[in-house]
Write the structure tokens for this entry.
Amino acid sequence: MTSMFFENVSPGDSKKDDSPGFLFLRTDMLDEARRGPVSFANDLDISLDLFGLVTLELEKYGTDSSNILADTDIEKVIKVLKSVLRRLGIILELPFRNFTTFRSYWISNGASNSWQARRDILETLFHDCRGALDALEEGRLTKPLTNPADQPNVDWPEVDNEIRELRRKYESAVTPQDFRALGTNCIGVLEAVGMMVYDPLLDLRGEEKSLAYDRIKDRLNRYIERRLPEDENEELRKVIKATIALANRLKHRTIPDALMAGIAADTTIYVTSMIRRLSDPSLSLILQDEAPF
């Protein structure tokens, strides 16, 4: 039995149990997941985990009685599964709440003398939920973010960390709230880029004070203006302005989706790559020697 909600307790970990080892159900984690999104996993992964646990335990109880959860345990797990599914927009309705009531249900539906009939009952009850989860998982696996044409020779570990987090959050996003939060991740990437390229000693004007961390557009514009002649930087500055606008719109949209979040994230990654390319020392001489493009 594998589940993120089981802890394998080794000998000596519990004075009440002298067996070689046993599985301990983490009811504290279940309670946390039922209350709302958690830090240890996203709602889709939790739903897939609990769906597998619930259906397997019910099948075992209904056939060879090899289930390991008690009646109260399976009732709690079913409640948590329903709550997490609801956050994903999936409604699971069951005509029973635990093993005992499941038994009463199969008896009343003529499955007293057939293990297969009980499996068929479970397949019918869980079919739509399984299909909805499969669709969400498939969508997650087929929506990768863009990769730049190549990787400029610039070491920006803070920026790399922000982009990795953006990719991770996007790959696990399934709800409008997940997609809306990606707007903040996009801004985080651009803020990290601004920290790498903005230099108050070179980019301040007159008596101006240092530009704040969150003045992304101004910081990036000053750097571009420093790196490129005036007649060559306008287009790139427009791209940066549009990228920041997309990220902010995503943050405040009522019902964002994977399409909008993907466009904002892709554009953020592209802009980061372009500015990184400007910072590549191996390209500096080329920029100086070539005619304006």
About this structure: The longest strand covers residues 6-9.
